[in-house]
Amino acid sequence: MAKIQVTILCLLACLTASAQRYEKVPFGDFNQWAVRYITESKVIGGQEKIVYMLGPTDTIRGNVPYSYKNTIWSSSNVFAKVVGVVKTSTNVTPDDGPTGKCAKLVSQMVSCKVAGIINVKVMAAGSIYWGQTQEPVSAISNPYAVMTWGIPFFKRPKALVFNYKAKIPNTGKLIRSTTFRATEFDGYDPAEVVLILQNRWEDEDGNIHAKRVGTAMCQVERSTSDWIIDCRLPVIYGDARKHKDYKPYMDLITGYKNMYAFNSKGKKKPILEEGWADSDCPVTHAILWFASGSCGAFIGALDNVLWVDEVRLEY
């Protein structure tokens, strides 16, 4: 009898494993990167800098916008041209992972001296996300507005699965820095992982509306001693506030964190996430991002690092 019970349990385990289907996210193994060589303006030194893009292996030389022809990923790495001055920012780079390359996201101060005199500093978290960044970036007053967030998506995954490692110093201090002024204050800045499934539509005036269909989010609050393999974030369908695992950071995205997309007329509009959809509502778009910080633009904790690898969706 005991042997029969063990055999039944083994069969059930096999059936459960076979019922789980993992779909690899394009370029989610982080083994392919495009390498861009961009020359900054002479007024800030005129150096040639390397800007990495997650997508098909390529080498791109010259101060030209990235095309996004064959990738769904963008990042906080940018080619900017503000009042005629070309500047780059790179806080996402390939690194060695458990089985190959991974993505390394770093929170750091991006700085440059204009004509050797004016010192410009901006606090920035490293992030990768599904979407595009409009290049060259010509203004930094609202960084979310230069990004196109999300991709068309119609599936209903059970969970987001990935590997990660983290260094979160958690000194209790945050920095707010926008161009010429930096201030320090008390606070906490965990890294974050976010998968949002939306049902979007457009009104007659071209405004983009959305309801939240699915939510999978977590914040990485502590450093890890090694890689966490197969971290699984279940997708909560419907109103996440009614779920036992709901956290305030899972709420609808509004206000200063508003995301943007192009409407059918080619105009950039904020995505107005107006409410929670029913759990069986069709999905039209997905937003996925990983970031070394969660405080928003120009605010964060220095030296947070999040390594990410093997991003998959479970069905």
Topology:
Elements lengths: L1 H18 L2 E3 L8 E7 L8 E7 L3 E4 L11 E3 L2 E5 L2 E5 L2 E5 L4 E6 L1 E7 L3 E7 L2 E7 L13 E3 L1 E2 L6 E9 L5 E6 L2 E6 L4 E12 L5 E13 L7 E7 L1 E2 L22 E3 L5 E9 L8 E7 L7 E2 L4 E10 L1
Parallel strand pairs: 2-4, 19-23
Antiparallel strand pairs: 1-26, 2-3, 5-12, 6-7, 8-9, 9-26, 10-11, 12-13, 12-24, 14-24, 15-20, 15-26, 16-17, 16-25, 18-19, 18-24, 19-21, 22-23
Overview of this structure, please?
This protein is mostly beta strands and 315 residues long. It has one domain (23-314): Jelly Rolls (Sandwich). 6% of the residues lie in helices and 50% in strands. The chain contains one helix and 26 strands. Strands 5, 12, 13, 14, 18, 19, 21, 22, 23 and 24 form a ten-stranded mixed β-sheet that branches. Strand 18 and strand 19 form a beta hairpin. The protein is globular, with a radius of gyration of 21 Å. The protein starts with a helix and ends with a strand.
Write a brief structural summary:
The chain is mainly beta. It is built from one helix and 26 strands.
Number of domains: 1
Major sheet summary line:
10 strands, mixed
Tell the overall outline.
globular
- Count every helix, treating DSSP H or I runs of 4 or more residues as helices: 1
Order of helices and strands: HEEEEEEEEEEEEEEEEEEEEEEEEEE
CATH class: Mainly Beta
Rounded Rg: 21 Å
Q: Could you estimate the helical fraction of the residues in percent?
A: under 10%
Instruction: State the assembly state of the protein chains.
Output: single chain
Spatial separation of the terminal alpha carbons: 35 Å
Beta-strand level of the residues, as a percent range? over 45%
Low-confidence stretches: 1-18
According to CATH, the fold-level topology is Jelly Rolls
User: What would CATH call the architecture?
Assistant: Sandwich
How many strands in all? 26
Average pLDDT confidence is 90
